[in-house]
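Hi! If you just cloned this repository, the fastest way to understand the data is to look at a raw example. We've pasted two of them here, unedited. The first protein comes first, obviously.
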Amino acid sequence: QLKPIADAHSRVLPIQVLAAQVYLAAGRADDAVATATRTMQVFPTDAELGRIATNVLMTVGRPDDALEAAQKWKERLGSAPRPADETIAQIQLVRAKPAEAKGVLQRYIQAATSDPDNNLPLMVQYATACALMGEDAQAKDIFRPLLERAPQWRQCWMRTALHSVLDAEKA
């Protein structure tokens, strides 16, 4: 019942966003992807639609398409691309491309380590990328000053170290 309404009102943004979310929740991956990507094209400057399309594509297991959508999202964000960059890094980790993930996050890591409590996801992604690349010392350096501060940092280091061990076992 939603599809005819969404198709008839392709320029009504709230209907399109709702349709993509409902399709996704209902397990209708193709309809969710079609709606999200079409809406992104209809509204070519709306950054939020880039985020939504990226999330839909990742949720349905299409990381290559999600990367393309995330890059468009990043363009739409202009001078504040960090949310898209963090998502791009996560996609690159899913795609088993840790060097690309690290490269995307490199510009943020110094500021993140200066304010770690507000940058946990970025620091974990960066350290994970380092660990997957065999740069264990660099990964540990991210967390070393924080290990005594709170259990969350020790847990992050253990998860990051586990990535390194599991990756070594695959080799």
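Ok, and the second one:
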Amino acid sequence: AQASTPYVATSDVNYRTGPGVKYYKLGSITQGTTVLVTRMVDGWYEVELEGGGVAYISSKYLVPAGSYQQPSYGSPAQDEYAAMAYSYSTGNYGYGYNYDTQYGAEQRALQECRSRDCQIVVWVMNGCLALAANDYGNIGTGWAASAYDAESNAIYDCGGGCWIAETVCTD
């Protein structure tokens, strides 16, 4: 077995079947999640999945566990949630923000999306989220403390030729 090293995600990030955005997205991990890295492949870390198997995460979003600093966004009087929903069949999207629960923000996003197949594609607590798209039907999502970083993450997640369709921040 290969030696594995603990790394921590510096933001929400997708993991994929291969080392690049052209590979199928298997899922995502949240900021602060620790993963076990086995090796580097073309700028992507190969990570062990729970229950066996491997996936790939861009090395831009992982740092060695010992060097990770939990970001501090101040302490708002109350946590605020935002969420975005997207329909892959129509391209419609909707969002909800400044809700005191994740559920509330997600329900508003689904309601605003106005398509039967809308699904939640990204959510955030006390931060910003962004949706990027391109002419080929690809989308990307991102979230971060700032709108700029959320948009950068969404553009990266989307792949090539993408633009920002929407950005939403909590208060």
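That's it. A detail worth noticing about the second one: The helical segments are 102-113, 147-158.
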